Amino acid sequence: MKFMRFGPSILFLRTSQVVEVKNWIQGIFGAQPIPTDEAIKESREFETVLFVTPMGEEKTIPPDSGFLIPDSARAVLAALINSGLPIEKVQAESSIIFLRVPEKVDDALKLLAGKFNGEAASLEEALDEGEVHDTIIAITKKRLSSPIGPEEVEGTVLVRERFLRVYRELSVDAPLLLLRLMPEWKEITIKMYDTEKQYDENIERLMLVLEDLDLGFVVGEGWDWDYPRPFMRVPVYKLKLLTWEDPVRVKFFLKGLEYRGYSRFCDIDVFVEGKKIDWVKLGKFDSKFELAKAAREELEKHLSEDVKKRLHEIEEKLLKDTEEEKAKAS
User: Fold this and answer.
1) Does the chain have fewer CB atoms within 10 Å around its N or its C terminus?
2) Residue 244's pLDDT is what?
3) What are the phi and psi torsion angles at 138 (to 5°)?
4) Residue 326 pLDDT exceeds 80
């Protein structure tokens, strides 16, 4: 589970030739000006948002629009300097850290403000008030693998401390913070069995989904034996997951990995306190195929495009390998 990630780097370019610099940026980076809220929402970790403003402005207050550049701030700055643009001054916004807290947001803001001697504020207020040596901790309930816009930030803490100190402390203390806010975490066991013994590919599929959907922390994994019938044992891959999600919801998503159409990849069982969640508890479905179809559709709605693409690549390989094995056997 990813509970913390960086926001974009935000740079202010001060110039007496605003229109010309904006035109050059479009030519250099192939970027078009977009509304500021959209630039922040669409930005990924370590990407850069550029604002071009007239000389004379000192406060790093974002204007209505800017440029989202899909590259790091140092690469962007190098390109700007090497291009010889008439930029007279560069200022940086506060560093942003997104922290995912699924509930008790107000308690989290109070804990963070107290720990770092910070000020609770909205994201807009924090961006207006913060400067280059400050750090903004932005709280969201949304999973961090997805885009996060200002409207999805529940609140922030503006910390008047340099980013590295705040990040180092937060990376150590955030799990303890989450444990204080949500003491009743659930531990579930996931077991995977594949008759075709294509475990490497199926384990990758499982981990892709767990990580992309932020379903929990993997606290243990390895091999075990299962006994589907008396005196019959089969190898299974097993992992333990610490999660704040409903185990039935986790089971439903993972059911979407068992099949694609009528092609079966593996069996995945989910246990809570040693008891297996039966598929009939996942809803009113006439068959496992109907359930698997609905689960796959719901799963793909929530996956990021990159992960969905990788998942399909692995599955195409699995289907191809299975067909080749069948051809050899015949």
Assistant:
1) C
2) 82
3) -105, 125
4) no
pLDDT at 183 over 70: no
Ranges of beta strands (E only) in 195-297 are 217-229, 232-243, 259-260, 263-264, 267-272, 275-276
Sign of CA dihedral 263, 266, 267, 269: negative
Residues in the chain: 330
**pTM of the entire predicted model:** 0.77
Long-range CB contacts (within 8 A, 24+) of 205-208: 205/257, 205/265, 205/311, 205/314, 205/315, 206/239, 206/254, 206/257, 206/268, 208/307, 208/310, 208/311
State which H helix or E strand residue 298 sits in.
Answer: helix 288-302
Task: Give the containing element (helix H, strand E) for 100.
Answer: strand 95-100
Asked whether the CA dihedral 71, 77, 83, 85 is positive or negative, the reply is: positive
Amino acid found at 28: I
- The angle formed by the CA atoms of residues 275, 212 and 305, to the nearest 5 degrees, is 135
Residue 138: name the closest of 124, 228, 128, 129 by CA. Answer: 124
Torsion of CA 166, 115, 173, 98, to 10 degrees: -60
Q: How confident is the model at residue 225 (pLDDT cuts 50, 70, 90)?
A: confident
Alpha-carbon gap, residue 44 to 38, rounded angstroms? 12
CA–CA gap between residue 204 and residue 218 (Å, rounded): 14
Strands 65-69 and 135-140, sheet pairing: unpaired
For 31, residues 6+ apart whose C-beta sits below 8 A from its C-beta are 25, 50, 67, 68, 69
Q: Which residue has the tokens 């069948």?
A: 326
What are the backbone dihedrals phi and psi of residue 317, each rounded to the nearest 5 degrees, phi first? -65, -45
**Which fold, 186-324?**
Alpha-Beta Plaits (3.30.70)
Write the pLDDT tens digit of every residue in 33-71: 999 999 999 998 889 999 999 998 878 888 999 999 999
| Sequence spans of domains, the chain | 4-181, 186-324
